Amino acid sequence: MSGAPVLPGPVGVLGLGRVGRFLALGLAERGVDVRAWDRGDGVGLADVRARGVTADTGPLPAWLPGCGLLLVPVADRALEAVARDLGRLPLAPETVVLHTSGFHPAALLRPHLPAHVAVGSLHPVQAFPAEGVPRPAGIPAGIEGEPAAVAAAARLAEALGLRPFPVAAQHKALYHAALALAADGTVAVFAAATAVLRQAGVPAAEAQALLRRLLATAAANLTTLPPAAAATGPVRRGDEAVVRAHLEAVASEAPAEAELERAVVARLRRLTAEELP
């Protein structure tokens, strides 16, 4: 991309998993001077180097203290270790460090970094693919932390085309649980429905193909309708005889999926009841 950078650099990205690649490549495409680092020598390092991003591996590189903004998209279990390593470096005053965890508050970093460094978090709400990098336009991003870090997170979001929104630090566990319930819950329901269809004699490939189409249309309904209106099937229609038959069939022929089936039916019953005046 030509023209002046939309965000002052250099920006350091410490970790090149799915989110790290998204950030590093998104910033580079927008003319930002971005440097990247990863502990290993995996696919993320090769990806960003192939697109012209300076990327190092091994010990933390010498260029880190020259970055006014450091992004830490690493696994939750590695956050404190990276923060401790950063705390040993001569980071400049007004440096901002942002992690990308949806679960941990920015305060997790505070004990390990000097007072002149601002800490915050920016959490892109996106199911990132194992391969490829999604386009950033419109992806929501939860932000929280110290004032200077929140301001930097908002500028970063604007530079990437993300849609920032505030997240209360004290509610991050609940916030993240909701997102995991939506994303991983969909995966769990897909797997359970596939298993039930297999018990009904549908070949695995066909079962997964028809469920992908069904889930895509259900998700499309939710883009324009509230959940109660988007729901379909016997619970919404009040066909209790069909609902009971479903529960009995799954309990009898696919018992490993019966608990999830009962939980889904119970939640749908609550949803339809809440819809009533």
What does this structure look like?
- This protein is of the alpha/beta class.
- Helix content is 47%, strand content 14%.
- The chain folds into two domains: 11-167, Rossmann fold, CATH 3.40.50; 174-275, N-(1-d-carboxylethyl)-l-norvaline Dehydrogenase, domain 2 (Orthogonal Bundle).
- It has ten helices and eight strands.
- Strands 3-2-1-4-5-6-7-8 form an eight-stranded mixed sheet, with helices on one face.
- Strand 1, helix 1 and strand 2 form a beta-alpha-beta unit.
- Helix 9 (240-253) runs antiparallel to helix 10 (258-275).
- The relative contact order is 0.08.
Compose a concise summary of this entry.
The chain is an alpha/beta fold and 277 residues long.
Which CATH architecture of the largest domain would you pick? 3-Layer(aba) Sandwich
How many domains would you count in the coordinates?
Answer: 2
Assign the CATH class of the largest domain.
Alpha Beta
Shape: elongated
CATH topology of the largest domain: Rossmann fold
Strand content: 5-15%
Question: What percentage of residues falls in helices of 4 or more residues?
Answer: 40-55%
Strand order of the largest sheet: 3-2-1-4-5-6-7-8
